[in-house]
Write a structure and sequence with these properties.
Layout lengths: L3 H15 L14 H6 L6 H14 L5 H14 L2 H13 L4 H20 L15 H11 L4 H23 L4 H22 L12 H10 L10
Length: 227
């Protein structure tokens, strides 16, 4: 049974993993949001909340979150084949070069960081070129983080990053960002609970608008974030 100390260490490990100060470069990407602002699809606090709810429900809730639970299970069991399968499955869902490069580069940065800290075990090992979601899942297991808490932390880090993008790229104040956090916190929980119940055949993102915005971002004349 986990002790109080081990639970505390797991919590602190999760806070470290989702911290904006973690040097993996998440702040550099907007995941299509900067183009959605440029195109006028997102114009204010209300429309930003709608956009984020849609991405959470039809994106993370049917792709990253349920796949992360499978990745964590595979890593815990030492099932390298299953781990690599879900890593490749998620990579195949990245519909633009920008989204694919974000996943690969953040995964490589997290891998380098964990390697420098001496945390990777000899077996199982992280596949070459593993994405950010896979590296996050593996480290969550190593840190003793429960799957549901890991999924909540991953979703929280995504939400904080998207709101940071909005605060930089549109006239959104920090108080408005906090209102959106209050609006979306219950949605994070609902999507995590849903993700843990989905069968394999129910997985797959449905975000044509985000894919179009991300593709448009590659040639956007003026931008703050990477493409």
């Amino acid at each position: 049974m986990p002790t109080e100390t081990s639970r505390d260490l797991a919590l602190l490990g999760l806070l470290q993993l989702v911290s904006p100060a973690l040097p993996i470069g998440g702040f550099a990407w907007s995941q299509g949001l900067e183009s959605a602002l440029e195109l006028g699809w997102v114009t204010d606090e209300a429309s930003l909340g709608d956009w984020l709810e849609g991405v959470l429900e039809d994106g993370l809730g049917h792709a990253e979150l349920p796949v992360m639970s499978r990745l964590m299970s595979a890593w815990w069991k030492g099932d390298q084949q299953a781990f690599e399968h879900w890593d490749r499955w998620l990579a195949a869902c990245r519909e633009t070069r920008e989204l694919a490069e974000e996943e690969r580069q953040m995964g490589a940065s997290l891998n380098r960081l964990v390697t420098s800290l001496g945390l990777w075990p000899e077996s199982p090992h992280l596949p070459v070129g593993a994405g950010y979601t896979s590296a996050f899942a593996a480290l969550a297991v190593i840190r003793g983080i429960e799957p549901r808490q890991a999924l909540l932390g991953f979703a929280w880090a995504w939400l904080e990053n998207q709101l940071a993008v909005a605060c930089k790229a549109m006239p959104l104040g920090h108080t408005a960002a906090q209102r959106l956090i209050e609006r979306l916190r219950p949605e994070l929980i609902r999507c995590v609970d849903q993700a843990l119940q989905l069968e394999d055949g129910q997985l797959g993102p449905a975000l044509p608008g985000l894919a179009l915005a991300s593709a448009q971002h590659e040639t956007q004349y003026s931008r703050l974030f990477r493409s």
